Amino acid sequence: MSLVERLGYGPGQRLLIVNCDDVGSSHAANLACLEAMTGGLATSGTLMVPCAWAREAVDMFAGLDLGVHLTLTAEYPGYRWRSLTGAASLHDADGFLPAAAAEVFARASVSDVRAECRAQIEQALAWGVDVTHLDSHMGANQIDPRFFEVYVELAAEFALPLRMVGPAADARLGFSGRAQAAAAGIVFNDEFVSRWGHPTAELMRSVLPKLGPGVAEVNLHPVHDGPELRGYDKREPQIRIDDHAVAMDRAMADFILGQGFAPISFRPLRDLQRAGG
Fold first, then answer.
1. For the segment 3-27, what is each residue's pLDDT rounded down to a tens digit?
2. Which of 35, 114, 167, 181 sees the fewest Cβ atoms within 10 Å?
3. Which of 61, 58, 53, 16 is nearest to 36 (CA)?
4. Which domains does the chain have, with CATH numbers?
5. How far apart are CA 109 and CA 238, in angstroms?
6. DSSP labels, 19-82
């Protein structure tokens, strides 16, 4: 059976998760993501546990569907964060998580990555978050096969579904990530619509009509414009501002419904996985 059938839908149904990444990264991100999930088209969010505004987000997003955005990088030059575990292999010369995933691959030990990601999940649970799924900040858990194994291992350990790249991207990675996850009993989205730097509205309007039946995910990075955003993201703030506008755009919501997509979050996928379905 297909995933949509296992979820109780007809075989031709198209379902769409719209996830707000980077919850907890800033107060402006928290405000914009909350607005997107309560008054916009977003159905889900993911929390960056090591960030300074993560604890605020826990209270703000109480009762909403929130996963853990496993975080091994800190990409902004003037706004940095550290790991929860303090492992030396996870940090750069300045003592922070590195700016790029490539640096994680070059220096981080698998055991330290495993311990850190587990600590982030456990911290979210200790804060009272009813974690719905796992995904990966800047793809750090998904690109290198060593850390992808940790990704799948923790999803099985905590009985949580995963964000997965689509079949085409999976093939380009050079290892069968989707097959590994399926073999471990992990539930994951069928398609993933994301292209950093490409306007999200254009991407959704061009890609969504071409998708077949299944569960697709689109990820957004909504942040309110203002001094806070402009202070830490000096290179690409407009991407985040525009993503907030997309999340609140009634015309985009109507377009999604007009394409026959039904909104869904990761919670039904988690419930399916935990039921052994």
1. 999 999 999 999 999 999 999 999 9
2. 167
3. 61
4. 3-274 (3.20.20.370)
5. 35
6. EEEEETS-HHHHHHHHHHHHHSS--EEEE-TTSTTHHHHHHHTTTS-EEEEE-----BTTB---
